[in-house]
Design a protein that fits this description.
Blueprint: H1 2-14, H2 17-27, H3 32-41, H4 49-57, H5 71-84, H6 87-108, H7 115-118, H8 121-126, H9 131-135, E1 140-141, H10 146-152, E2 155-156, H11 157-171
Antiparallel strand pairs: 1-2
Helix pairs in contact: 1-2, 2-6, 5-6
The chain binds zinc ion.
């Protein structure tokens, strides 16, 4: 949604369809690395969108390579964009930076680990892409239903159960 808005606004402001297309790719298609991980690293064969979403929202991921979600790649592409004076690549970086910012905000709520370090490829490599070491192995609760799950995403099961349990304990009849 934010990508679509950013694309339309930039098209209106700059009149550059190339830059706007770059934003769309950087903001939205950057997540294809999740699909690449899912098939190659996680070796999952259930290719339906529901199975794919469940795998992530329920925190069943074992390895997180996520090549495109990397500061290092962004820096490299920024150099290339400057070198080639490429509007498409500059758009990709703008869309991708927005995407990464939102990922940091929303995924940061799901992990007790350092979310800023997480988006460094070198940092993930040093931890052998191990999901438990990088993101924590705390169970996640996915809301029921595909669209609820898609838009709301999971929440931390422990944090949730702690609040609910303490409420239950506090309100239990004595
Ligand atoms: Zn992402």
């Amino acid at each position: 949604m934010t990508t679509a808005i950013a694309g339309v606004v930039s098209l209106a402001a700059t009149g550059s369809a190339t830059f706007a297309a770059g934003i769309a790719v950087g903001g939205f298609l950057i997540d294809v690395d999740h699909i690449v991980d899912y098939v190659t690293v996680e070796r999952q064969r259930a290719l339906g969108p529901a199975a794919f979403l469940r795998h992530y929202t329920e925190g069943r991921t074992r390895r997180l390579v996520l090549a495109l979600h990397s500061y290092e790649l962004f820096a490299l592409l920024a150099l290339l964009a400057w070198w080639l004076e490429s509007a498409a690549l500059a758009g990709y970086l703008a869309g991708g930076a927005m995407h990464l910012g939102l990922d940091i905000v929303f995924n940061g709520r799901l992990t007790p680990k350092n979310i800023f370090a997480f988006y460094s490829f070198g940092y993930r490599l040093r931890h052998r892409f191990d999901a438990g070491a990088l993101f924590g192995s705390e169970p996640l609760l996915a809301p029921g239903g595909f669209w609820r799950s898609f838009f709301l995403g999971p929440r931390r099961a422990l944090a949730a159960s702690t609040v609910e349990d303490s409420y239950r304990i506090a309100s239990a009849p004595r």
